[in-house]
Amino acid sequence: MNPFATSCFRTLATEFLQLIPGYLEILRAHGVDCVEVRSDDPGRVVYEDEHQVVVVPSSGSGFEISARFGGSEAGAAPLIL
């Protein structure tokens, strides 16, 4: 168990990624700040399956906040923090 571990969706998990805007809308409606994070190098992988990875970010891991409140940036690999 690691308090810094983060679950991220793989870019090919499109059926799950399509649901995210609705979830972000619910969070915003309840005053919860949220960000979309994209990275090609999120850190050390501690679990993975066909839809997601769980990583422990390392310093300089490449996590960059690409947009607030569910926006997107063309060409980046969607990983949701």
Topology readout:
Blueprint: E1 6-9, H1 14-17, H2 20-29, E2 35-38, E3 44-48, E4 52-56, E5 64-68, E6 78-79
Antiparallel strand pairs: 1-4, 2-5, 2-6, 3-4
What is the rounded Rg?
12 Å
Mean pLDDT: 74
| First-to-last CA distance | 17 Å
- The total beta strand count reads 6
Shape: globular
If helices are DSSP runs of H or I spanning 4 or more residues, what is the number of helices? 2
| Proportion of helical residues | 10-25%
The arrangement of helices and strands along the chain is: EHHEEEEE
Task: Determine the strand fraction and express it as a percent band.
Answer: 25-35%
Poorly predicted runs are 64-81
Main beta-sheet strand count, sense and barrel state:
3 strands, antiparallel
What's the arrangement of strands in the largest beta sheet? 1-4-3
Coarse structural class:
alpha+beta
